[in-house]
Amino acid sequence: MEAKAVARHIKQSPRKIRKTLDSVRGKKVDVALNILHFSPEKAAVVIEKTIHSAVANLISQEDKANVNPENLSIKEAYVDGGPRAKRYRAASMGRASLIRKASAHLTVVVADESN
């Protein structure tokens, strides 16, 4: 059995999130949460929340009320680019320079390994 959680419009670039996500992809949920909780990176907070949400989604499914949290692992975890916010900043000689502020969408799928 598996469940999915998606965090959308994260105010960080996908490349920076992917760097942190690579350290927990494929690991058991309890090990991944331990790594993320003590990581100093900004993306670790968002990834940790999304993993918690995916586990809660799995537990709340009607036919799977007896889930053992020790058997859960991260089956899939990936980041896609979100919409870019475009801002302008004053540049030299009366010009305007474009600033693109990135956002990202994070998807985490957890699965029960006992089956």
Q: Could you explain the architecture of this structure?
A:
The protein has a single domain (2-112), classed as Ribosomal Protein L22, Chain A, CATH 3.90.470. It has helices spanning 14-21, 29-37, 42-60, and strands at 2-10, 72-81, 85-90, 96-101, 104-112. The model has no long low-confidence stretch (mean pLDDT 93). It is an alpha+beta fold and 115 residues long. Helix 1 crosses helix 3 and helix 2 runs antiparallel to helix 3 (42-60). It contains three helices and five strands. It has a three-stranded antiparallel beta sheet, covered by helices on one side. The protein has a two-stranded antiparallel ribbon with strand order 3-4. 31% of the residues lie in helices and 35% in strands.
Tell me the layout of helices and strands.
Layout: E1 2-10, H1 14-21, H2 29-37, H3 42-60, E2 72-81, E3 85-90, E4 96-101, E5 104-112
Antiparallel strand pairs: 1-5, 2-5, 3-4
Helix pairs in contact: 1-3, 2-3
